[in-house]
Amino acid sequence: MSTTDHIIDISAVWTRYGNTVIHRDLTLSVNYGEVMAIIGGSGSGKTTLLRLMLGLEAPSRGTIKVFDVPLQGCTVADLRQTRNRWGVLFQEGALFSALSVFDNVALPLRELKALPEDVIRELVMMKLDLVEIDAMSANKMPSELSGGMVKRVALARALALNPELLFLDEPTAGLDPERSHGFVQLIESLRRALNLTVVMVTHDVDTLLALSDRVAVLANQQLLTVGPLWEIVHHPDPFVQNFFLGHIKRCEQENVKDFRDKLAVGLHVA
Ligand SMILES: Nc1ncnc2c1ncn2[C@@H]1O[C@H](COP(=O)(O)OP(=O)(O)O)[C@@H](O)[C@H]1O
Ligand SMILES: [Mg+2]
After folding, report:
1. Domain housing 154
2. Strand pairing category for 165-169 and 197-201
3. Which end of the chain is more exposed for a tag (fewer CB within 10 A), N or C?
4. Whose Cα sits closest to atom 13 in ligand 1?
5. Is residue 250 part of a domain?
6. Atom number of ligand 1 nearest to Cα 50
7. Where are the beta strands (DSSP E) in the chain?
């Protein structure tokens, strides 16, 4: 597989805060069209890894390319242009509390400084519709929304510029199981409809089961393993074994389901 099949290439990356090493020689690629999940204990460097991929943080060594653009080493103009090709849903839902739902979603469109207000209005209402937020809620303030609605509005804002790539940090954190399930279903249907590549941090096995094509495991500053769920669940590391405790059968069944899906659409199955 040539590097151009990769939407993201992380190569031999070290990240340090002072004397503390967060990532030690980490190499990981994300393929176009896949959902790559990142798991790891609290403080294992998952969010930092996302921030590296977003160009918000620089590694102390190694390189990170997104869309074949090296995030260090590229021009400010290139970085700005590249940033417009991805959307991000941060861990804390992250709506601006002083802005209405409408203005939150309009923000990335307004920052382009290229679109007239009536076009922006139409695009915002389209994105809200996409995430199943009714038009009546457009004028609400974030404080008037339920947790599930905040997530959906934040997702609408992440999708405002029609990104090809979506980053999600703990997308279902803080949602009850029912809302969490609904939100994961929404991400799955949007991913298919919009042809998205997704990089997602999660600690939720149900989210992994519903969405992930491959799972990367961070432990001891390194990438422990990467592969489909039914493979990585058998990794002997205690973190992996504890994480999937009681879920191994379900994860193995994903293999069977995936096999059937591929047969159903007539793909070659090795
Ligand atoms: N800006 C920073 N300065 C110093 N230490 C940081 C900074 N950001 C994160 N860390 C530390 O890096 C480690 C990894 O953090 P993080 O990536 O947020 O972990 P995770 O998302 O896996 O819980 C933690 O020990 C955290 O305290
Ligand atoms: Mg985190």
Report:
1. 93-162
2. parallel
3. C
4. 43
5. no
6. 17
7. 6-17, 20-31, 35-40, 61-66, 69-70, 86-89, 165-169, 197-201, 214-219, 222-227
